[in-house]
Design goal:
With 364 residues, the protein is α/β, with parallel strands linked by helices. The chain has 3 domains: 121 residues, 3-Layer(aba) Sandwich (Rossmann fold); 67 residues; 146 residues, Histidine kinase-like ATPase, C-terminal domain (Heat Shock Protein 90, 2-Layer Sandwich). It contains 12 helices and 10 strands. It has a 5-stranded parallel beta sheet, sandwiched between helices. A 5-stranded mixed beta sheet has the order 6-7-8-10-9. It is elongated. The termini are far apart. The relative contact order is 0.08.
């Protein structure tokens, strides 16, 4: 079901639009001003935004400018709803990146038709882009693993399309391509980062002096470090509404980058292998001399045999979008906990629930 965000300060107009679009089987959200609308858009990441121009707190133009600053809403289709329909108003809206303009007053047919056309066009554009990318990259073989090759081909393919076809592209289409390139680059960065972390941990493990030095480092303000990372992952994976977070504060006997990496790996795993709109709980609390972090989800789970075989480049299953990872997340977490005198435990009721527990030494 497509999500539509309505930003309109006039209550009766807002309620009428909600009723019309809900009757068309859209999932509708509403905000009464631009400031609230931007906050809601960043949270729910809608498929389309309908926005009035003349509003208190933040008008429609300012709202559009703010949405275009953020990666997750930079290319979201945006339609202005307003009685301001002079050529100058239309031109300003389009220059700021609006995709369409529905003048007030409008009929139900005009509203439904405009929304449907814009959502259909966006879906067709993405489908054609992916088909063109496959055509461009089908012969691009490289001697690296598939999980690295996929985002690399996307970066190369979409970049080539921008270079060769930009004269015929609209602004929103170029922005869409830039976002796809950004996402592919971020995925490649994650894969390379996991591989680098694995090699780094391997090196520390056989270097007693380096390990002893690392063990003297302290993670200060564990609460802030963990909350920031979990919030970042929730936004990237569109799971903000699914996750509940509660961290007590403490200083820990582990370098901050490894503490954050361990939290990130188990949290990301929970997000990837549990259905959207199911709860994920991330809790960190002091228990005696240890700081225990529990990440619980209602996802795919792991069998006892799979848990016993956690190792480098060992991949047990695809995530819920059919994508397979590099197979280093859990072994990196296990190695971090072993090196810094912590414990890592996974308890899973296969197909029902999984809980990952990390126990860190508290610095005194």
């Amino acid at each position: 079901m497509k999500k539509i965000l309505i930003i309109e300060d006039t209550e009766n107009v807002r309620e009428n639009i909600i009723e019309i679009l809900e009757n068309e089987d859209y999932e509708v959200y509403a905000a009464e001003n631009g400031k609230t609308g931007v906050e809601m858009a960043l949270s729910i990441q809608p498929d389309l935004v309908l926005c009035d121009i003349m509003m208190p707190v933040m008008d429609g133009y300012e709202t559009l400018k703010e949405l275009r600053k953020h990666v997750v809403t930079a290319t979201t289709p945006f339609i202005f709803l307003s009685a301001k329909n002079s050529p100058q108003d239309l031109r300003l809206g389009m220059e700021l990146g609006a995709d369409d303009y529905i003048p007030k007053p409008f009929t139900m047919e005009e509203l439904v038709g405009g929304v449907g056309m814009r959502i259909k066009r966006s879906a067709e554009f993405i489908e054609k882009s992916e088909a063109k990318l496959n055509e461009l990259t089908q012969n691009m073989g490289t001697p690296i693993t598939e999980v690295i090759n996929e985002p690399l081909k996307a970066v190369i393919g979409f970049s080539k399309m921008l270079m060769t076809e930009y004269p015929n592209m609209e602004k929103f289409e170029m922005a869409e391509f830039n976002q796809l390139i950004y996402r592919a680059g971020m995925k490649l960065r994650i894969v390379v980062g996991k591989s680098y972390l694995y090699q780094q941990l391997q090196s520390i493990q056989i270097n007693d002096d380096e390990l002893a030095k690392k063990k003297q480092e302290i993670s200060k303000n564990a609460q802030s470090l963990a909350q920031d990372k979990v919030s970042e992952l929730a936004t990237e994976n569109r799971r903000i509404d699914d996750i509940s977070v509660s961290f007590e504060d403490a200083d820990l006997h582990i370098p901050s980058e490894y503490f954050v990496a361990a939290i990130a790996e188990v949290t990301e795993n929970a997000m990837l292998y549990s259905p959207k709109r199911t709860g994920i709980s991330v809790v960190g609390k002091v228990e005696g001399d240890h700081y225990v972090v529990s990440v619980k989800d209602g996802g795919l789970g792991m069998t006892a045999d799979q848990i016993s075989k956690i190792g480098a480049y060992q991949k047990f299953q695809e995530d819920l979008e059919g994508k397979s990872g590099v197979g280093l997340g859990l072994i990196n977490t296990k190695k971090i906990m072993d090196l810094f005198n912590g414990t890592f435990l996974i308890q899973s009721d296969f197909g029902v629930e999984t809980e990952a527990k990390l126990s860190f030494l508290i610095a005194k």
